[in-house]
Amino acid sequence: MSPVPPIPTSLEDVRIKLLPANGYYIADFISLEEEEGLLNKIEAAPKPRWKQLAHRRLQTWPSDLTRDTLLQCLLPKWLVEPIATRLLACPASTADPQSHIFSTSPHAAPNHVLINQYQPGEGIMPHKDGAAYHPVVCTVSLGSSLVLDVYGTNEDGTRETEPRFRILQEPRSLLITTGELYTDYLHGIAEVHEDVNLGPDTVSNWDLLRSPELIVDGKLQRSTRTSLTYRDVKKVVKLGGKFAIFGKS
Ligand SMILES: O=C(O)CCC(=O)C(=O)O
Asked: How far apart are CA 109 and CA 35, in angstroms?
């Protein structure tokens, strides 16, 4: 069994220094066994859980938002343990070891998870995540590496054509984007079979990667990549009294 990776002393130790405020990257956030367990749970979900989109497929937990609002419902245990628990155990700063990345979010914890699955050649158009969520996104990657492109905007409000930053996400890694990086920049995944031109000058988190040696001639072939994005939806409504919904494992 591979050991459960240690949590960094503080997110300050894993900040991606080349990015605007703020991005963090932990190369080894979950173990190989935890990755396999999560992939098994995701595959075991009932078929209607998957929404087939044009260039990826998607599961939404605990449910879709309606007018930016979540119907209160607990996340299933397999989405809480190990990822959410570990997110909350990771100190945001050494000065305040009790603080974590969701300390100042409305529910002080993530309450929503999107699971995106991409085959090689698939991706997601550059976009912003919008105002429904507190501006923190925690993404755990499973199965394959790929590059997340980060775009700025021109003065007229249109998107810049070339990515301003590129973040390489390895399997079992955690990427956190927050602050200005969340509100002012767009992110997307190119629809390619292979990420190219990868190196210390083009990849913002190069110094934090687990296995840069796997990149040969600046290239990395993609295989099936599954991501789990944890967020805190700001508006939550209760379906009160005896109709309350409880989470299932
Ligand atoms: O799969 C990813 O890493 C990105 C997903 C994404 O952009 C989103 O859910 O808004």
From this structure: 21
